[in-house]
Amino acid sequence: MRLVAHPTTVPAGKVTLRVVNAGSLTHEVIVLPLPATGNAGERAVGADGRVSEAGSLGEASRTCGSGAGDGIAPGAAAWTTVTLRPGRYELLCNVPGHYAAGMYAELDVTG
Ligand SMILES: [Cu+2]
């Protein structure tokens, strides 16, 4: 499993994420700031197979819709608009087990 960001660098301000689920399972995308010394993929995974969403800046998890929902069905798109300051962020899927399986990507925001 993987999550790919195109482009990987965007200007600060309002950023619209358009997520296409090209897989065969339900997925989602959560936006979290990366800690100054951390990299994508390094978050602690809990016993439930998920990472903490504390500090989340938004998510795209609604099939053919905006914002938070029950997950993006296979073949469907989802979207959300977040306001991002310059920095490093992590896009990740928090369906149990998916983060540990590689569903994360760094997104860099320039000033
Ligand atoms: Cu997933």
Overview of this protein structure:
This protein is mostly beta strands and 111 residues long. The protein has a single domain, classed as Immunoglobulin-like, CATH 2.60.40.420. It is built from no helices and 7 strands. The chain has strands at residues 9-11, 13-20, 29-33, 58-60, 77-84, 87-92, 104-110. It has a 5-stranded mixed beta sheet with strand order 1-7-6-3-4, with no helix packed on it. The relative contact order is 0.36. The model has no long low-confidence stretch (mean pLDDT 98). Bound molecules: copper (II) ion. Residues 27, 93, 95, 98, 103 line the site of copper (II) ion. Copper (II) ion binds next to loops. This is Sulfocyanin-like copper-binding protein. Keywords: Metal-binding.
Class per helix and strand makeup: mainly beta
Number of discrete domains: 1
Strand order of the largest sheet: 1-7-6-3-4
Any low-confidence stretches, pLDDT <50, length ≥5? none
Helix content: under 10%
* Distinct ligands: copper (II) ion
What is the number of helical segments per DSSP (H or I, 4+ residues)?
A: 0
Q: What radius of gyration results from the CA coordinates?
A: 13 Å
The rough form would be described as globular
Do you know the CATH topology?
A: Immunoglobulin-like
Keywords: Metal-binding
Protein name: Sulfocyanin-like copper-binding protein
Domain Sulfocyanin-like C-terminal: 10-109
